[in-house]
Amino acid sequence: MSIGSEQSYRYENGRQYYDNKSVTYVLPSDEEESKRVSKQHLLLKAGFGGNYDAPVREALEKGIFVLDAGCGPAAWTAEMAKDYPNSTFHGVDIAPRCLTTPPSNCHFHTKNLVEEKPFPDNHLDYIHQRLLVLGLLEANWDKVIAQHMKMLKPGGWIELVEVTFRVLENGGPKATKLMHAVEKVGGDKGLNMEIPFQLEERLKKAGAVNISLRMATTPINHGGEIGDICWEDFYEAFYAMQALIAQVHPEMGDADFFKSFLLECKEECRESKTSLQWYRCIGQKPLDINE
Fold it and tell me: What are the residue boundaries of the Methyltransferase domain, all occurrences included (predicted)?
């Protein structure tokens, strides 16, 4: 195992965060965060109308090898493993936050994708990775995507999913202020906050073909149950990033002020019909590796 199995942590306001120079993920790493990300899975499935876009359904039904890179609490991995029992799913993450009782065709590995290639070349049929915009430095994006392409078998598919902090659909000033604060701090830390808009270009650079990109939205605090879940996700994520936001807007460092501001955002999102924008990009490793 790599450094992911020997993580050190720091604690702020009762939350656990990574405290290791090799890990750039800015959100917490604790049970509360795992629950948030698991609920977030419902948003993405609803927004895109399914768990994946890559044309792999028939292959999944027959049985293939799948990697969920940066799987977190593994909501996607476990659901896919249950839906496709003939396929084998491997989840990789920097810390063991995965399910304690996964499906029998679901396996987890604690590794740092930046430091260690988890599988040999030409080994996997499908690689899924999502929401590492706050977890991968700009300097590592091309390296990780190239590594994924090497692990894919010729003809295999890669699927990348990200969210933008630059743009909110119908975003009001308060919600936009929070998004742009995280975008600024992330950029200052060396994260690539523009990666949602670069996915096609990055896959092409890595040698992928048959590339396509799709954008989906999820409503924040309007539109029914999904809007309610999206607000909970928005609130919990930004509440956990209070210290980061206060680096840009010092007044946000006051706990009471920040809670009030978030509740004002909730009403603003309802009135403005604000939505988050997610991007899902797929690409294929050429059947002819010289293509």
Answer: 66-156
Taking the C-alpha atoms of residue 103 and residue 82, their distance in angstroms, rounded to an integer, is: 7
Distance in angstroms (rounded) separating the CA atoms of residues 120 and 132: 22
3-state secondary structure of 218: strand
Q: Under a CB-based contact definition with an 8 Å cutoff, are residues 9 and 16 in contact?
A: yes
- pLDDT level of residue 72 (50, 70, 90 thresholds): confident
> Which of 117 and 291 is assigned the larger pLDDT?
117
Q: Residue 216, Cβ neighbours under 10 Å: how many? A: 18
Residue 51 backbone phi and psi in degrees, to 5 = -85, -10
* 81 Cα distance to chain centroid: 19
CB 105 within 8 A of CB 124: no
- Strands annotated E in 99-146: 106-110, 124-130
Q: Where are the beta strands (DSSP E) in the chain?
A: 9-12, 15-18, 65-69, 88-93, 106-110, 124-130, 152-163, 209-219, 275-284
Helix (H, G, I), strand (E, B), or coil: what is residue 243? Answer: helix
Q: State the Cα–Cα distance between residues 262 and 119, nearest whole angstrom.
A: 42
* pLDDT tens digits along 214-245: 999 999 999 999 999 999 999 999 998 898 89
Question: In DSSP terms, which residues pair with 127 in a beta bridge?
Answer: 67, 158
Residues ≥6 apart with Cβ < 8 Å to 234: 175, 220, 265, 269, 276
Query: Which of the pair, 260 or 34, is modelled with greater confidence?
Result: 260
> What is the biggest distance separating any 2 CA atoms in the chain, rounded to whole angstroms?
59
Report CA 281 to chain centroid distance, whole Å.
13
- What is the pTM assigned to this prediction? 0.89
Q: Work out the number of other CB atoms within 10 angstroms of the CB of residue 19.
A: 12
